[in-house]
């Protein structure tokens, strides 16, 4: 999708870390932040995917470094933060998007302990650990914008797996609690809750018929794109949203209105 990228001048030169920046929504977010002059640290577990996003940004004269790390591992997040602070400078924008759906939906009693822990660790604990690592420096400097990633699955009943839905609902409340706690220190925390974003992964999972049916289920008549989410992230990263914190933004083409 070709979009006109809006410009937020205050983002130029800022350091932004995007967890889950090596694919899907996170990669689109890295591209838009870099197009706004931010210096972007692209994170994911797979080094080759991280490098591909960094190379693409640099090929368009943007500034980016790649930092492969598993954000379910606090020590790995701390190493990532130290590297970003050393190679770029303290982080002003933290985009905590790493996560994912996990096993297919099924009866709750049939979820294995391993599947449960994997969904909670990969979505909720990873967000907590990321905030735990980056918050102290933001609080000390008295500024920062954090954007977390929930899902419509954590907002209303959907067909998503139970553990994923519970994890994403947890991200909503985690984000609110932290927003309340750190607002007085000049740090803002906002949360996104998208539904049905047509990433490359989802493009490959759905047939054309399924996509059309899903698109028709939204009042706005289409599924979301990674750029839709990235555009909201740009706004929440920038000072243009300086009066917003603790918000959960439902991004569902009008289907969810809470
Ligand atoms: N697409 C949707 O419709 C949708 C809707 C609502 C919410 N979301 C949420 O939006 C976020 C991004 O989803 P997406 O659809 O863009 O997914 P995606 O295309 O699968 O990309 C996920 C990204 O997260 C990274 N990642 C996953 N686990 C990680 C970990 N433990 N440590 C570091 N990086 C990790 C992946 O890289 P590696 O695999 O290389 O680690 C990849 O860069 C997720 O939190 C997802 O739950 C998506």
Give a quick set of tags describing it.
8 helices; Rossmann fold; globular; single chain; alpha/beta; binds NADP nicotinamide-adenine-dinucleotide phosphate; 7-stranded parallel sheet; 258 residues
Report on the architecture of this protein.
With 258 residues, this protein is of the alpha/beta class. The protein has one domain: 3-Layer(aba) Sandwich (Rossmann fold). The chain has 8 helices and 7 strands, in the order βαβαβαβαβαβαααβ. It has helices at 24-35, 47-59, 74-87, 113-141, 162-182, 200-205, 208-216, 226-237; strands at residues 15-19, 39-44, 63-68, 93-96, 144-149, 187-194, 248-251. Strands 3-2-1-4-5-6-7 form a 7-stranded parallel β-sheet, sandwiched between helices. α4 links the parallel β4 (93-96) and β5. α4 (113-141) packs parallel to α5. The two termini are 28 Å apart. NADP nicotinamide-adenine-dinucleotide phosphate is lined by residues 19-20, 22-26, 43-46, 49, 70-72, 97-100, 122, 126, 149, 151, 194-197, 199, 201-202. Residues 19-20, 22-26, 43-46, 49, 70-72, 97-100, 122, 126, 149, 151, 194-197, 199, 201-202 line the site of NADP nicotinamide-adenine-dinucleotide phosphate.
What's a concise summary of this model?
With about 260 residues, this protein is of the alpha/beta class.
């Amino acid at each position: 999708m070709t979009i006109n990228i809006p410009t937020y001048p205050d983002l130029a030169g800022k350091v932004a870390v995007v967890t889950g920046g090596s694919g899907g929504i996170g990669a689109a977010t890295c591209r838009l932040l870099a197009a706004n002059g931010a210096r972007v640290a692209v994170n994911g577990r797979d080094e080759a995917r991280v490098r591909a996003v960094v190379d693409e940004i640099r090929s368009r004269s943007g500034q980016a470094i790649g930092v492969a790390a598993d954000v379910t591992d606090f020590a790995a997040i701390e190493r990532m933060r130290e590297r970003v602070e050393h190679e770029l400078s303290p982080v002003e924008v933290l985009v905590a998007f790493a996560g994912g759906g996990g096993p297919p939906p099924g009866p709750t009693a049939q979820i294995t302990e391993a599947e449960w822990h994997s969904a909670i660790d990969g979505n909720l604990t990873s967000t907590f650990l990321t905030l735990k690592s980056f918050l102290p420096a933001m609080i000390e400097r008295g500024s920062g914008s954090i954007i977390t990633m929930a899902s419509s699955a954590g907002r209303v009943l959907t067909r998503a797996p139970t553990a994923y839905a519970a994890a994403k609902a947890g991200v909503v409340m985690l984000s609110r609690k932290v927003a309340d706690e750190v607002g007085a220190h000049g740090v803002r925390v906002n949360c996104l809750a998208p539904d049905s974003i047509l990433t490359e992964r989802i493009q490959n999972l759905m047939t054309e018929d399924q996509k059309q049916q899903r698109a028709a289920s939204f009042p706005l008549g289409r599924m979301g794109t990674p750029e839709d989410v990235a555009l909201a992230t740009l706004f929440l990263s920038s000072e243009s949203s300086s009066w917003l914190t603790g918000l959960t933004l439902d991004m569902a083409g009008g289907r969810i209105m809470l």
